[in-house]
Design a protein that fits this description.
single chain; mainly alpha; 4 helices; elongated
Length: about 130
């Protein structure tokens, strides 16, 4: 894909159109291409803090290195595994729904960006043929 961009850039400068392309247009073009990619990256690595949920840390995420054996085993015995499992299932469901919404949004943005890019390239080609 970088070869395509490099060829387009070199052909633009060789044809004399390079002088008409300004730095803000180049930056906007790159942002136009990379924003959908960043949105897809957000799908792959969502923040667990964005899903909300528990007010306390689940037992299995606590660091046992900071506890004595007696304290760790007493907390383990006092732990309600039904609550722990239920909270984790709700958290995973929220995370799955968040990823689904982020994916659909990224898909719509990418579709709109590439459709607009197609229209602009087609119009530019048509205008250059007519004039």
């Amino acid at each position: 894909s970088f070869e395509i961009i490099e060829r387009l850039a070199s052909s633009t400068y060789e044809s004399g159109l390079g002088a008409s392309i300004s730095l803000p247009r180049i930056i906007m073009g790159w942002l136009f291409l990379f924003i959908p990619l960043l949105m897809f990256a957000r799908v792959l690595h969502p923040s667990r803090t964005s899903i909300g949920g528990r007010s306390s840390e689940p037992f299995y995420l606590r660091t046992p290195l900071k506890m004595t054996v007696e304290r760790y085993s007493s907390e383990l015995k006092a732990c309600d595994w039904l609550d722990e499992t239920s909270a984790e299932l709700i958290s995973v469901s929220r995370l799955r729904d968040l990823k689904r919404r982020n994916f659909l949004l990224a898909l719509w943005v990418a579709s709109a960006a590439y459709t607009l890019l197609f229209i602009l390239v087609t119009l530019r080609g048509l205008l250059s043929m007519g004039g």
